[in-house]
Design goal:
With 634 residues, this protein is α+β, with helices and mostly antiparallel strands. A nine-stranded antiparallel beta sheet has the order 16-22-23-27-13-12-11-10-28, covered by helices on one side. It is globular. The N and C termini lie far apart (52 Å).
Length: 634
């Protein structure tokens, strides 16, 4: 008998924290990372590379106010269970599949993290390791990876419970939904991405599956693979025969010398699957309908930096890798999603057993034999997972979908989900003007789009709507549309009406990033802090970053004297302070901060700041401590 239980689990978790209210004005470096390809990557291979890339995270806000203070925390859980499997989903982490336990084998098929520890690996910063992440919408990690999604229940034609997890993507203006049910010893997942608008959008999907690394062999039926190695805010992509790279058989990911990605080129006529099988011949098999044609292996590698990242994410010496399945062959690509189009595919997650003696044989032979096995499995296109079955909502996601009208054929976005974040935008539509807010408080949300800009422009033509708050948001609209000049003018108008930290901060960032005017950037960020009456960590971080990187470290050291005590131990702010001391020639001051005891909770994936500063502060006889080494390449 299949059951769906909606409950609460106690987990060792650090809070994600409040969002950073400072909007992204080209300050999310992950979005702007570059890539290069070798001559072995053909023009046809590169057809969709870079297509659909975004310039700003807007209207989403960064989630960077977490810490490493974990404690027992109640978290919502949706559990599908029968006599053979137990699948645990966490709706507050984007619906992530946290555990898949095979009762017959008495085996966890995934890498189940023992902690929920946000770290800076996601598009919005916060990201956690373990289980299966549903990576939707945009290159990188889904905006929902550390955010709640809707949870609903329906039934299959055979009467089994179906769990639906879904949300509205505010950047792509699409709806994605995950529909899960158990079928004996298999977990079936049917996914949809809907674009019901009149305009074309883009689709992106990777199911990121964490599995144990030790003793594992990764199998998939491919002759070639794209290799992706990390540099300093860039990627290098090559194409080589699978599975050998850098002189090693990387079907055994433990042999990888450094972090990287392998994107397998699975021929169209081959079944689409990937497996991670441990030394005893038992492992996880993921296979899908042909729409999900990409397969990938990610590994941290055996370098000191990669090992440290693994421990930083898990507080454990149990290493993991990820096997993944995606819509296109690499993660550099987005596929066009025409107007009034729905994409749909089905995946299966199940145990696989291979004779250990055969598992250690020739990779191609093992993969071809596994392909024959996959062909014998049930046809996923016939899976009993109806999309239009009546659904009962068990838990709410965001209220943004409720503002958009008819956006899905399968999922509802009820008004009950609307919060204060959305209500001011409903009022703009109903009243014809944006209501003025307390200038001491930062905006709680942003909304972008041509229709929103036009509504704000109409608001400026009314007496009630001609105020600082309207022009602040109008500047955001212009910036999101790629018009920094108009954004600057709108923010200057906002300041003229009412000086606020928020307009000053936006101008500072704009002058730095778009006009290369460091003096004006410094002037405005100092003014922002001077008129701030409600403490805001995001603004303090921007102040530190701007002043130090604008060549004004002395001004940051002076400004830091007024830093609220609650952030005196903040690793990111302390790093900028150490960097300021270094650039002022005060090596002892910098060493007093960046030493063996230093911790920066939000060190970013691929960021080399700590190791670079350490090498400048200390002689070769004092090597970088392993716990401070986050280098993903040597």
């Amino acid at each position: 008998m299949n059951e769906l239980i909606f409950t609460t689990l106690m987990m060792d978790a650090a809070p994600v924290g409040e969002v950073n209210p400072m909007p992204d004005l080209k300050n999310v470096s992950y979005i702007h990372a570059t890539f290069q390809t070798t001559d072995r990557v053909s023009a046809e291979d590169r057809k969709y590379f870079g297509v659909g890339a975004i310039d700003t995270l807007l209207p989403y806000l960064s989630q960077d106010n977490y810490n490493r203070d974990r404690r027992p925390t109640p978290m919502k859980a949706a559990i599908l269970e029968n006599d053979r499997l137990r699948a645990v989903f966490l709706p507050e982490l984007g619906g992530r599949l946290w555990s898949l336990y095979d009762k017959t084998l008495q085996r966890e098929l995934l890498y189940q993290n023992e902690i929920v520890q946000p770290c800076n690996l996601g598009l919005r910063n916060a990201w956690v390791a373990g289980g299966v992440e549903w990576n939707s919408g945009i290159k990188g990690h889904s905006p929902f990876t550390c955010a709640p999604v809707f949870v609903a229940r329906s039934e299959s034609q055979s009467g089994d419970p179906i769990l639906s997890l879904y949300e509205y993507d505010r950047i792509r203006k699409t709806v994605f939904g995950i529909n899960a049910r158990l079928d004996g010893g298999s977990l079936l997942i049917r996914t949809t991405v809907e674009n019901l608008r009149d305009e074309e959008s883009f689709a992106y999907w990777w199911s990121n599956i964490a599995v144990p690394e030790r003793g594992v062999r990764v199998l998939t039926d491919a002759q070639d693979m794209f290799t992706c190695l990390y540099g300093d805010n860039k990627y290098t992509i090559d194409k080589v025969p699978a599975p050998i790279f850098d002189g090693e058989d990387l079907s055994y990911p433990e042999r990888a010398k450094r972090a990287g990605d392998l994107f397998y080129v699975v021929p169209d006529e081959k079944p689409k699957w990937i497996a991670a099988v441990e030394e005893d011949g038992v492992g996880l098999l993921q296979y899908s309908t042909p729409e999900l044609k990409g397969r990938k292996l990610f590994f941290w590698g055996q370098g000191q930096g990669g090992r440290n990242w693994n421990r930083f994410l898990t507080e454990s010496d149990r290493p993991y890798v990820e096997i993944q399945a995606g819509l296109l062959r690499t993660q550099m690509e987005h596929c066009p999603l025409p107007a009034h189009t729905t994409l749909s595919w089905t995946e299966c997650y199940t145990a696989i057993q291979i004779d250990p003696a055969e598992l250690g044989g020739d990779w191609r032979t093992v993969c071809e034999k596994t392909s024959e096995y996959v062909r014998s499995l049930p046809d996923l296109a016939k899976a009993d997972l109806p999309l239009n079955a009546p659904k009962t909502i068990l838990s709410m996601g965001s209220g943004w979908g409720a503002l958009e009208g008819e956006i899905s054929n399968y999922y509802t976005f009820p008004a009950e989900a609307v919060t204060d974040e959305e209500k001011e935008w409903i009022a703009l539509e109903e009243k014809g003007y944006l209501e003025e807010k307390n200038p001491a408080l930062p905006p709680v949300s942003y909304r972008i789009g041509k229709e929103i800009r036009e509504a704000l422009e109409r608001s400026t033509e009314t007496e009630a709507g001609r105020h600082w708050y309207t022009y602040l948001h109008l500047g955001i609209q212009h910036y999101a549309e790629g018009n920094p000049e108009a954004a600057r003018d709108a923010w200057l108008t906002s300041l003229a009406l009412t000086p606020t930290p928020w307009a000053h901060r936006n101008l500072a960032t704009c002058y730095r990033n778009d006009f290369n005017d460091n003096d004006r950037a410094a002037e405005h960020i100092l003014a922002a802090v001077a008129c701030m009456t409600v403490p805001c960590r995001g603004l303090w971080v921007d102040a530190a970053s701007l002043l130090v990187n604008c060549g004004k470290p002395e001004q940051w050291i002076e400004l830091r004297k007024s830093l609220p005590t609650q952030w005196e131990a903040d690793g990111r702010l302390n790093f900028y302070t150490a960097l300021a001391y270094f650039r002022m020639g005060d090596l002892d001051g910098a060493r007093g901060i960046v030493n063996e005891d230093f911790t920066m909770t939000d060190i970013k994936e691929g960021e080399l700041s700590i190791s670079a500063l350490w090498n400048q502060l200390y002689d070769a006889d004092r090597p970088l401590p392993a716990r401070l080494d986050f280098r993903m390449h040597e």
